[in-house]
Amino acid sequence: MTALSEPLVRRAPDAPSAGLRVDDLHVAISRGHSIIDAVTGVTFDLERGETLGIVGESGSGKSLTLRAAMGALPRGAEISGGDILVDGDVMKPDQRRPHVAMIFQDPLGALNPTRRVGRQIMDAALSREGVTKKQAAERALQLLKDVGISDAARRMRMWPHELSGGLRQRIMIAMALATDPEVLLCDEPTTALDVTVQDQILGLLDQIRRERNVALVFVTHDLAVVANLCQRIAVMYAGEIVEVGPAAEVLTSPKHPYTRALLDASITAEVRPFRPIPGLPPDPTTFTDTCRFAARCGFATDSCRTVPTTLGVGAHVSNCIRESELALETEGVAA
Ligand SMILES: Nc1ncnc2c1ncn2[C@@H]1O[C@H](COP(=O)(O)OP(=O)(O)OP(=O)(O)O)[C@@H](O)[C@H]1O
C-alpha cells in the first residue's frame, strides 16, 4: 500500500484540532400529519485518529444521526433538539461543517450523473479557499492514484455510470479527501460491495485515518467490520445509544442484552451459536423513556418496563438497569 499524498491546504500548526461532538441529539421525522422523534438523546464525541463504529439493526437511527452530524438530513427529517459542535462551535442544522466530509452507501446516488468524475473531485478541491483550477486538476489526478485507481488520467474523464460500484466508492473517498477533512463520516460505505472490494475500501479508510490522523465514524450493521476497524463502538437501538465503549470490551463483555443479542445473531460469531433476535424493533411512534428493548429481551423483568433508562457516564457504559445483575449472571455462566 503506497502512502497518501500530502493535503493541498495544510492547517496552521497552531489551529485548534477539529473535533466533532454530538450532544443530546434529537431528530424528528414527519409521518403524514404527525412529527415523531426517531433519534432521541444521542451523544458522542470523537478524537482525531480514532474510529467510532455505530452499529444497530435497520431503522435504529444510525443514518439520521450521521446525516444530522453532517448537516445533510433528508427531506422530512429535522433536528428537534441538541447540538452538533465542530471545533467547539455549535453548527446551524444545515450549515456546512468545516473539515467534515461524508461518504454514503450508494455512491451512484451521491455522484452527479451529468458531470465527469474528475470534474467532481476538482469541484470538491475548489471548495477549499485559495485553491486554483490548475491545482485542483492536479490534485484530482493525484487523489485518484491515492485511492488506488489505476489509469487515473483516463478515468478522470469517465461518467459515474461507467464505473463499477467499488470504483465509484473510491471516487467518493477521493472527493471527500479533496476537502482535506479531519472528520470523515461513513454511512455503510461497503454494504453494497462484494467482500473483496469491501476489504480494500475498509483498508483504504483505515489508511486515511492513520496517515491523515482523521477521525472516522463508521455506521454499519456488520459487527465483523467494526471489530476490525473501530477503537470504540456505540450500539444504537430504537433511536438511542444503549451501549458505548472500547470495541474490544463491547464485543467480548457486552453490558447490554441487545449488544449480546446482536453478537449472537452475527454470522461471524465464532464461539456462540447463531441466534437471530426474535421480534422486531419498535416503531418511533411507540418509543418510551423505559427500556425499548424489553419486549424482546430474555433478561427483562417488570422494572425494565417501568423504570426510565439513562446511559451512564464513563468509558464503557450501557443504559440497561439490570447491567450489574447481568454481569453476575454472565460470571455465573463462565464459572
Ligand atoms: N426521510 C425520512 N422520512 C421519514 N422517516 C424516515 C426518514 N429517514 C429515516 N426515517 C425513519 O427514521 C427511523 C431511523 O432511520 P435510519 O435510516 O436513521 O435508520 P438506520 O439505523 O440507519 O437504518 P438502516 O441500517 O436501514 O439504514 C426509521 O424508522 C426510518 O423509517
TrEMBL record:
Subcellular location: Cell membrane
GO CC terms of this entry: plasma membrane
Gene3D superfamilies: P-loop containing nucleotide triphosphate hydrolases (3.40.50.300)
GO terms for biological process, alphabetical: peptide transport
InterPro entries: AAA+_ATPase (IPR003593), ABC_Ni/Peptide_Import (IPR050388), ABC_transporter-like_ATP-bd (IPR003439), Oligopep_ABC_C (IPR013563), P-loop_NTPase (IPR027417)
GO molecular function annotations of the record: ATP binding; ATP hydrolysis activity
Keyword field: ATP-binding, Cell membrane, Membrane, Nucleotide-binding, Transport
Domain ABC transporter: 20-263
Source species, domain of life: Bacteria
Topology in the lipid bilayer: Peripheral membrane protein
CDD domains the UniProt entry points to: ABC_NikE_OppD_transporters
Pfam families found in the cross-reference section: ABC_tran (PF00005), oligo_HPY (PF08352)
PANTHER family per UniProt: DIPEPTIDE TRANSPORT ATP-BINDING PROTEIN DPPD, OLIGOPEPTIDE TRANSPORT ATP-BINDING PROTEIN APPD
Family, similarity comment: Belongs to the ABC transporter superfamily.
Protein name: ABC transporter domain-containing protein
